[in-house]
Amino acid sequence: MRTIVKYAAAAAAAAAALATAAAPATAQGSTLTVLSEGHVDAFGIAYEDGALDLHVHDEENDAEHAPSDVLLAVNREAKTTAPAGYDFLDDGDADVWILPDTHVEGLLFPGWATEEIAPGDFADDTLTITVHDAWGDVDLYTVDDLGDPTVLFDSDQGPGSWDVTAGGHGHLNWAFGEAGLYKLTVEAEGELAATGETVSTGEVDYWFWVEK
């Protein structure tokens, strides 16, 4: 879903933060596209002309955006309580906003995608996504069939990385500890099969707005 009235202030705040953080010139002074529900490849990875790229693929509108041009919105309907046993989500306040790894009507359904990576380009057909840091309390995690979580990134613990397979696609759970504006700094990299050279997207900033 594109920008709507209730996110105007959030988009303005994010745009101001982008400028303050010395974001790419293309993002400064521009109108951010707000994505607030539906399927989105937040960490879309492509390899073209010798360069590795991170982008946001809006599956609902079949559009790609630079991360600096997008505000990913977490609607208030995502607000819940931390599940029992998920101690990494509970910092003394049981409220948490979660975008789950399954589609829920009215919420953003963000994941990762390497469908633009050709098999054989990278060693073992593997790339690595790293979240270096985040503004605020953020946890990214998966849950197995028994309900046991594996934490991929915990903002209290520092950088977190996980491997993804070329030509693949997946989802994870995104948890935010409070309402407000967040920035996640993300990098994707991989070793080229032909040369052994490691190529990287460099550090790329993503912006999230969590609705109170």
TrEMBL record:
The keyword Signal applies. It comes from the Bacteria. This is Surface-anchored protein. Residues 1-27 form the signal peptide. InterPro entries: Surface-anchored_actinobac. Keywords: Signal.
